Amino acid sequence: MAKTKPGKKDCDSYTIKGTNKLVRPGDCVLMRPSDSDKPPYVARVEKLEADHRNNVKVKVRWYYRPEESIGGRRQFHGVKELFLSDHYDMQSAHTIEGKCIVHSFKNYTKLDNVGTEDYFCRFEYKAATGGFTPDRVAVYCKCEMPYNPDDLMVQCEGCKDWFHPNCMGMTIEEAKKLEQFMCAECASDDDAKRPLNSIPVSPSSDGKVAERALFLWNNDHIRNLITQNRSVILPLIFPALEKNTRGHWNQAVQSLTLNVRKIFSDADQTLFDECLTKYQEDELKEKENNKKRESMWIRLEDVAASKSSEHELVSKFASLSTASS
Ligand SMILES: [Zn+2]
Ligand SMILES: [Zn+2]
After folding, report:
1. Ligand 2 geometric centre to CA of 182 (Å)
2. Domain that holds residue 253
3. Based on the domain organization, do 23 and 122 belong to the same domain?
4. Residue 248: how many CA atoms within 13 Å on its side-chain side?
5. What positions does the domain BAH occupy (predicted)?
6. Which ligand neighbours the alpha carbon of 163 most closely?
7. Cβ proximity of 243 and 286 under 8 Å
8. Ligand nearest to the CA of 141
9. What's the 291 CA to ligand 1 centre distance in angstroms?
10. Which of the ligands is closest to the CA of residue 180?
11. What pLDDT does residue 54 have?
């Protein structure tokens, strides 16, 4: 073995106390922090050396957690994300608690199960300046954020970009139920190109069509136009909105409708209340009309019945003519 300093020699491996786990240079390890409330430190072992009394020291290169970095944790940082720092230390090998695996970002996203010992690293970090390498990464969604592997994203069938359900006005549950997804921009392009009669028909088509239509509200431009012209548009669509909110069979449609309803009530509460009152009045009127119609039918049937007892032959024509009138 090569001598490093007088009285010290390199070791090939070290066995973690109380275990049969071997640590070798290049391995990633968890190290006991001085403050036991904190999660263990993560480091990459660069070198192992023993002194003449066989005390093993380990040269480590620290991984930083996002909260330990100068910029702090950002929204796109994963729970298991680490930065490989330029900060090296000599530590006693006794502080090694266990081993872990720091995956590349790509490999991490391919894991079927993320175990407690699995971490990932996509950035190197300069501890003194807080700088990152690479300093640019691909961004996704209309919020233009780097990918956080902990967050569910949905891919648009049109532009193939990835989107956060939240940024698209959906909950995670709604997004999980989607068979396919189109971002608002692609959906409006698509609808313009496609003749109306060729909307794909599937068992859930009316839910899908309603969902698409409601996604239009995710487009800022369209939303602005509609809210500007609300005095014309809201009275027209209010009955449909109200019917959806009272119980559309498709939950995604129902909650999207609630969002749209809120946009209007936030924009103009007075107009909204007027429409609601009108809707309730119309509803009452319709109920009364239905009652009238029913009682009319009962009267007609009575008349028909009384006539049929007199003229058996005429009754058929009587009921036919009342049904067609
Ligand atoms: Zn987003
Ligand atoms: Zn798209």
Report:
1. 5
2. 154-267
3. yes
4. 22
5. 21-136
6. 1
7. no
8. 1
9. 51
10. 2
11. 85
Q: Could you give the 3-state DSSP secondary structure of residue 131?
A: coil
pLDDT digits (tens, 9 = 90+) for 231-280: 888 888 888 878 877 766 666 777 777 888 888 888 889 988 998 898 88
pLDDT at 127 over 90: yes
Number of folded domains in the chain? Answer: 3
Q: What is the 288 CA–ligand 2 centroid distance (Å)?
A: 48
Are 220 and 167 in a shared domain?
yes
| Cis before 134 (ω within 30) | yes
Which pLDDT value is given to residue 4? Answer: 52
Please indicate whether residue 154 or residue 4 has the higher confidence score (pLDDT): 154
Q: What pLDDT digit, counting tens, does each position of 192-222 carry?
A: 554 444 334 333 445 666 777 777 777 888 8
What share of the chain in percent tops pLDDT 70? 85
What crossing angle do the helices spanning 269-310 and 230-245 adopt, rounded to 10°? 60
Ligand positioned closest to the Cα atom of 181: 2
Burial of 118 (0-12, 13-18, 19+ CB in 10 A): middle
Could you identify the residue written with the tokens 């391919």? 110
Give the confidence band of 98 by pLDDT, cuts at 50, 70, 90: very high
Ligand in nearest proximity to the CA of 147: 1
Q: Which residues surround ligand 2, an ion (CB under 5 A)?
A: 156, 158-159, 183, 186
Q: Tell me how far the alpha carbon of residue 139 lies from the centroid of ligand 2, in angstroms.
A: 14
